[in-house]
């Protein structure tokens, strides 16, 4: 092995300088800092899988007696086709740490009939977290909004869903205001 010491390396012709050939490994030792004042491409990774879905129609039947799975009719994006049947499933080879966010708007059909509302995140068929709002006596209202975000370590095949319940006379989850988003975090 030989050692080259120089302060600058420029291409002999053109504007591209190539270090090594396919299959080579270029090692940067511990303690070395790489300073970039140009454009860096091909480094890091992508925050995928990633998805964002929303409701496009009101969902009826939200009640206090039974948790209701929230349905989503519109995919804003779904990079790995991993969102189907109103749930996100971690695809093969994509285990890791994920960020999730959901927002629901539960609304009563009659003014001042909503007493409380809750949104649940479910993982693999079990509740793992919730966002609850309660309104007592004179504080009864027409609608309640919940938003919940969390980070979770996910394995291949894990699936995530959103459920809601509320003490209402005839509850609905409302158009454009009920969303579910998630993406894999770069580590």
Characterize the structure shown:
The chain is mainly beta. It has a single domain (50-184), classed as Jelly Rolls (Sandwich), CATH 2.60.120.40. 0% of the residues lie in helices and 43% in strands. It contains no helices and 13 strands. The chain has strands at residues 50-54, 59-62, 68-69, 74-78, 83-84, 87-89, 96-107, 116-123, 126-134, 143-154, 159-167, 171-173, 179-184. Strands 1, 2, 4, 7, 10, 12 and 13 form a seven-stranded antiparallel sheet that branches. Strands 3, 5, 6, 8, 9 and 11 form a six-stranded antiparallel sheet that branches. A hairpin with a 2-residue loop joins strand 5 and strand 6 (87-89). The protein is elongated, with a radius of gyration of 25 Å. The chain starts with 49 loop residues before the first strand and ends with a strand. The model has no long low-confidence stretch (mean pLDDT 81).
């Amino acid at each position: 092995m030989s050692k080259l010491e120089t302060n600058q390396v420029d291409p002999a012709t053109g504007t591209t300088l190539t270090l090594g050939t396919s299959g080579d490994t270029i090692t940067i030792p511990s303690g070395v800092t790489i300073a970039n004042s140009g454009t860096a491409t091909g480094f890091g990774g992508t925050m995928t899988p990633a998805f964002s879905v929303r409701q496009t129609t009101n969902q009826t039947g939200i009640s206090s007696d039974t948790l209701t799975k929230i349905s989503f009719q519109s995919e804003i994006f779904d990079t790995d086709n991993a969102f189907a049947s109103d749930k996100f499933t971690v695809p093969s080879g994509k285990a890791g740490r994920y960020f999730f966010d959901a927002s629901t708007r539960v609304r009563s059909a009659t003014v001042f009939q909503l007493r409380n509302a809750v949104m649940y995140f479910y993982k693999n068929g079990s509740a793992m977290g919730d966002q609850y709002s309660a309104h007592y006596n004179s504080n009864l209202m027409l609608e309640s909004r919940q938003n919940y975000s969390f980070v979770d370590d996910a394995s291949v095949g894990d699936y995530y869903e959103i459920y809601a319940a509320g003490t209402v006379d005839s509850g609905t989850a409302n158009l454009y205001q009920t969303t579910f988003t998630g993406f894999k975090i770069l580590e």
